[in-house]
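Quick one, tokens below. Sequence please?
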């Protein structure tokens, strides 16, 4: 299986309380496994507050819904041994 790398990493975002914010990370291969999103070192799951999806096979997205002050911190994306943070 090829080593999946990060082609385009996360970008820092500034958002107002109550708004949604979307982070995108592009990887080198489609159908990447061993992918993880974290906020402040806490693994995120796909639920009503966090929408995790993949667009066009290679663009992994995380949307945080109606952010609050508690959501301030580092968002990280990991695929295999490669990471990106914002």
């Amino acid at each position: 299986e090829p080593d999946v790398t990060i082609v385009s990493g996360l970008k820092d975002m500034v958002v107002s309380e109550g708004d949604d914010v979307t982070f995108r990370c592009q990887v080198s291969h489609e159908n990447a496994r061993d992918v993880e999103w974290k906020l402040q070192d806490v693994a995120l799951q796909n639920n009503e507050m966090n929408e995790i999806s993949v667009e066009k096979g290679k663009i992994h997205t995380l949307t945080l819904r109606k952010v609050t002050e508690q959501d301030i911190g580092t968002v990280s994306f990991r695929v295999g041994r490669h990471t990106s943070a914002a």
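The chain has one domain: 6-85. Strands lie at 6-8, 21-27, 35-39, 42-43, 50-55, 59-64, 75-79, 82-85.
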